[in-house]
Amino acid sequence: MTPHAATHALILGGTQGLGLAIAEALAVEGCTRLVLAARDPVKGQAVAERLGAAFLPVDLGDAGDVVACVDRAAAIMGRIDALCIAGALTDRGSILDTTPEIFDRMFAANTKGPFFAIQRAAQLARAGGHPVSIVTILSMVTHCGQSYLAPYSASKAALANITKNAANALRHDRIRVNGINCGWMDTPGEDAVQRRYHGATDGWLEAAEARQPFGMLVKPAHVAGLAAYLLGPMSGVMTGSIIDFDQNVSGAYPE
């Protein structure tokens, strides 16, 4: 089955973790016009070569750089009809100790950069007269978030609103915008965060997974299938949806 044989996809943050899994899912489903964008050019070039994709360096915290990246990707592929925003900063900070510098850096990369990526992709699609499907990778923290994730939670909650607002504004242009609230996920980035901020050592993942209802953390490949569906024609007219992808139910309390 090749639902993405005609897809021209740009994935921001597409060289590791969930972004990479989404790129792999699109490639398996027939996508041959694929651009991956991220900060690390060495890793990015290697991943892109393996997938037969193009790579562009981008700083999600620089809105001008993000817009230029969208333009370059469109020039490489001829157009963009699928955009996934998977990159993000996950620095820690609570309401008591977050500095203005950390707050601004988090919102620049997690909210402002994605806002202008969506804007530019929509502008190009409107000018070219073609549809585009956009997926924002969000987090279950949009519902609240742990105390040590105050700026991250706020930045993702803002992006969730942007997702729905854009979906409403752009639907008559055949531009669809949906989001996925991911739960605690098993990625290389999460391993680094656990070791850096929470003193985790080898074996932390196994211990964490043993405490989960389904005996595992969310896996990138599982979410990638949903993202590929939302980015492709099989999701039809679906827009403005924020999907919780987790094993814990928001709003539920211990019984």
TrEMBL record:
It holds the Pfam family adh_short_C2. Residues 7-187 form the Ketoreductase domain. The keyword NAD applies. The keyword Transcription regulation does not apply. Keywords: NAD, Oxidoreductase. InterPro entries: KR_dom, NAD(P)-bd_dom_sf, Sc_DH/Rdtase_CS, SDR_fam. SUPFAM superfamilies: NAD(P)-binding Rossmann-fold domains. One of its GO terms (molecular function) is oxidoreductase activity. CDD domains: SDR_c. Belongs to the short-chain dehydrogenases/reductases (SDR) family. NCBIfam families: PRK06198.1. This is SDR family oxidoreductase.
